[in-house]
Amino acid sequence: MYINWQKKVAKCFVIPQRVVLSIMGFLAIVNAYTMRICLNVAITEMTVKKNRTFIDDGIDRGICLVEGGSSGGSSGKGTFEWDEEQIGIILGAFFWGYVITHIPGGLLSEKFGGKYTLALGILSTAIFTLITPVVINWGGATWLIVLRFLEGLGEGTTFPALSALLATWVPVKERGKLGSFVFGGGQVGTIIGTALSGVLIDYYDTWESVFYFFGILAIIWFLIFIVICYKDPESHPFITEKEKDYLIREMGALSRDKTLAPTPWKAIFTNVPMMALVCAQIGHDFGFFIMATDLPKYMSDVLQFPIKENGLYSSLPYAFMWISSISMGFVCDWMINRKMMNVTNSRKLYTTIASFGPACLIVAASYAGCDRLLVVILFTLAMGFMGGFYPGMKVNALDLSPNYAGTLMAITNGIGATTGFVGPYLVGVITTNQSLYEWRIVFWIAFVVFNVTNVVYIIWASGEIQPFNDPALLKRSKESLANSDSEANHNEAKKPKLLPIKGNKNES
């Protein structure tokens, strides 16, 4: 009777449950990024700007002048006198915590499923976001750094948990488009977080509004996700028999292997394609975090955009990146399914597009000077090319090891995320005068990081399942190889020894 009731309810779902999970996973990342990004815009209004006034005498000082020859004085709205280095530490503090919980998040997701690991991580970040204004007004920069560290701890489980869920729910032939869609939530979250933050601050005339707004949205997501999503197809009460049959046919199972051996750490860290993936992640994260964390500052401090326009123009590049990541995901799957290109070469191709294109365009933007329209266009195109990372290296962890996808994503994303506190701090140290010339140095550094890491990925990356995916099989393979070598040595020993032929005494 209960099973019949479940089947009747399952027929009411027009959208397959793997798509429902993908939509909620997408919204999880959207919420994660809005809560992460909103401070980047709000801090431009929280702090007192430097009072910089110059005479427009035709001398190029690397400063964009606004009407009247001013480079923009104090906005009058900021109340916190934080210098550039201190702001870099504040913006990077999130990633100190973010790095720490990646591997624990991956291990928990593989052992218990990714549902609650993901949900509780987002919930904790939402609570910390809601109390941000109180903490800032009470404790200033010091307590804000502590709070951002705690937010990072909560959000560090997001990508490992989602990777574990996708590895259980999404077959290989759909990973390009659904993986790109889910992980593309980072761009949408950046768009919404950046654009809406500017609008909210302008409308309510207070930076505090953004933290209340995005914190409440994340709590609403948590309540819906807990009710409608499940850790694997086997435990979902309302999945259709048609979808079950399809997933069994494509993936071989509906639930994770509960007898899975402990994580083969040595095999993972000595695997060459895995280390190439880590390298590509460093390149992606360094460029992305510099753009996501510091682009609003560049728009405000260098190009002198007002807060509302700052939010809008800072979000445009991510809108284009999101559209391109989805489009490239569909094309990537189409090429693989038509056997026009194998998985390995597809991952390399799209990662290269996502590295070389942005590297060139952001440097070009720094040479566009104070041509605001051209700068926005170049940044937008740069982030559009970066969308290739998602059907490229971003879903590569699922290719290498479906069984340990959560751990692999934890390792790659965790190591890559270290650039999240290195990047903003580096920007703060280099751009002390907020000039075009200083920012040009930052973009040239990004150019080098993008291309060097991509070369490593091109040479050593793989889209094939690696031996460590099945530790038991790997062990048997090693034992078989050892036995084979032993047998060969034994046979060699049994061969009759040939005595050297003695030469003629008269031979010289």
Outline the structure in words:
This protein has about 500 residues and is mainly α. The relative contact order is 0.14. Helix 2 packs across helix 9 and helix 2 packs across helix 13. It is about 70% helix and about 0% strand.
List its traits.
508 residues, 72% helix, globular
Structural class: mainly alpha
Average pLDDT, all residues: 80
Taking the sheet with the most strands, its summary is: none
The gyration radius over C-alpha positions equals 26 Å
Order of helices and strands: HHHHHHHHHHHHHHHHHHHHH
Distance between the termini: 100 Å
Strand content: under 5%
Helicity level: over 70%
Total E-strand runs: 0
| Low-confidence regions | 53-59, 67-76, 497-508
Sum up the overall morphology in one term: globular
Number of distinct helices: 21
SSE layout and pairings?
Layout: H1 2-10, H2 17-46, H3 84-100, H4 102-112, H5 115-130, H6 132-155, H7 158-169, H8 175-183, H9 185-204, H10 209-228, H11 241-251, H12 265-269, H13 272-302, H14 307-337, H15 343-367, H16 372-386, H17 396-400, H18 405-416, H19 419-430, H20 436-460, H21 471-494
